[in-house]
Each structure stands twice: as structure tokens, then as C-alpha cells.
Amino acid sequence: MQPHAAPHGVRTVLVVTGAFVLAHTILYAYIAPILSDACRHAQVQWILLDFGSASIIGIWLTGALMDRHHRKLVILTIVLFTTAAAVLAIASSSPAVDYVAAAVWGLAFGGTVTLLQSALMEPAGKHADAAQPSISDHLEHGNRPRRPGRRPASAPTRLGGAGDREQCGSGPPSRRCCFAPRAPRRGQ
């Protein structure tokens, strides 16, 4: 059986994951200058504590609700994050608004990783083991600059066909599992 290209839904989840991680990283990296512009430079650590506390609550809420409301939670986290980021970056008018926006940001961010990883499993289907390293790479290394045109080692261009599990063993998928084998040259 020939390997086939990654299902369309896998790419969509990876694009959403990359965009979310990039947006979160930008907001997290620039929260101090954003708050300083609003004359709240002395409250940065407390606003980040608010964010972190809300993230823990977000993790718990995600665990409690994701089995019954997965799709709604994915959409809700993206909407909440976008709203919180806009409020912090554009409409920061008072300390109370900033604390509420940071809490909303934390609630949204807390369960996002779990939601996006589980969202990847359905379109990947029987190739979930091969697709999983791609989302991990987005989450762990999504913020590091890479040379143009380089792909992380764990990013599959193709997902293997039936029998890959036997070829790869029981460990994590290797390059041999994730990438399609080259066609033999003429005369070989």
C-alpha cells in the first residue's frame, strides 16, 4: 500500500496551533511594554500571576468539559484569547479591565494544548501516532526561528500506509515512518 498525503484536517489543526502559539508568545513577550504604556508597569507581575492562576482553572475546566463540548471549547478558547489580546493591546483603560482580560487570556490558554492535540487525533485517524510529533513540534519549537525552507525533523510531509507500525517498532515515529520512501531509480 502506497503512503498518502496527510489528511486536510491535520494541516488545518497545525496551522491553527502555529497561529495560536505565535499570538500567545507575542502577547506574553510584549505584555510588560503594553502595560507600561498604560502606566501599569508596577503591576506586571500581579497581572501575570492572574494569568497563571486563571490558566490552572482553564486546565481544570477543559478536563471537565472537553469530552462533551470539544468543538465548542476550541472555538471558545480562540474567541476568548482574541478578545483578551485585543483588550490588553488596544482597550486597556483601567487596572480592573487589565486583570479581567489577563484572567480571560489565562482561561483560554490553560486548556488549549489539550484541545488542539485532541482535535488533531480525529482527522489523523489511524495515523495519529505519526501526526502527534508535528503538533508537539509546533508547541515546543514554534517560537524558534528556523532557516527559510527548513522543516523540523518531526514534521511529516506524508503519513505512512498500513504496516508502518511494524516497520517503526513501538517507539516514537521516526523519519522512516513519517516520510514517504523514495521511489526506486530506473535500473535498480
From TrEMBL:
Coiled coil: none annotated. It is a multi-pass membrane protein. The chain crosses the membrane at residues 12-31, 43-61, 73-93, 99-116. It holds the Pfam family MFS_1. Residues 172-182 have a biased composition (Low complexity). Residues 130-188 are annotated as: Disordered. InterPro entries: MFS, MFS_Efflux_Transporters, MFS_trans_sf. SUPFAM superfamilies: MFS general substrate transporter. Signal peptide: none annotated. Keywords: Cell membrane, Membrane, Transmembrane, Transmembrane helix. It is found in: Cell membrane. This is Major facilitator superfamily (MFS) profile domain-containing protein.
